[in-house]
Amino acid sequence: MKIGILTSGGDAPGMNAAIRAVVKSAIHNGIEVMGIKHGYKGLINEELVPLVSSDVDGISEKGGTILKTARCPEFMEEQGRKKALETLKKFEIDGLVVIGGDGSFQGAEKLEKLGVKVIGLPGTIDNDLAYTDYCIGFDTTLNTVLECIAKIKDTDSSHEKTTIVEVMGRYCGDLALYSALAGGGEIISTPEMKLDFHTICTKLSENIGKGKNDNIIIITERMYDIEELQKYLEEKLNISIRSTVLGFVQRGGNPSAFDRVLAGKMGIKAVELLMKDSSGRFVGIRDNKIIDVDFSSINNINDNKQKEYDLLKELL
Prior knowledge:
The chain has eleven helices and eleven strands.
């Protein structure tokens, strides 16, 4: 038996730990592994290399992905997917492990419909896949955000200033929510509970009126023009405000112990599923147990994020 593994979409801390787990587990069970570089683009362009145990020694503690990653518009076309299928057949690959987020999973599902045995591992810092409690990379990124906020708070406190901090997350507010809870953010706005400029201004004014002059406003990316929000608050309250976009600093860094262990368990599960001839499954964690769900049911899984937000926002 021979399997392939690729990482796709945005990189996430812990992807290397997942690669290591898949390779080590597969070789332990007598399975060959081919690493596919640059995600689906590499699959189309036949960028495949054999992986052995020594290739993945010492990579778990490294951020990013040794297999590299890239966007691939060509794969979204039928002709591109046919090329990918031809590559898999040419290299006699019996199963594929895809590590990535929502877009990567959509690609995995398309390949599965073409008859490829595919298992997906959730590797995305946004934590925006509802079927799993945590995605690989979220915990590390959250801790990076907290470290940045702590440094900002030191200066805000010294100068009695307010700072708007924009964190990543795309259309999911988990990074903003959890960093606000753990890092002491005074005002938070996420896609799940978006505040308009007036509401943010009112809350900030109330805090200042109570003597709280150093405030952290945490927002999820893509929701506002941060410069417009800053200008609005400064003009309405007649104060000086800073703004900080954390950007890609959130993606990098050594993965946390939690992400390394989570990735390891998920990687082993992926190999087990392929050995059982399973296909079209997404691996995840729920209630501290490693689970797998069918591709076709993922959109029907009840998303409890709103309930969680309603409970947690009482702590803000």
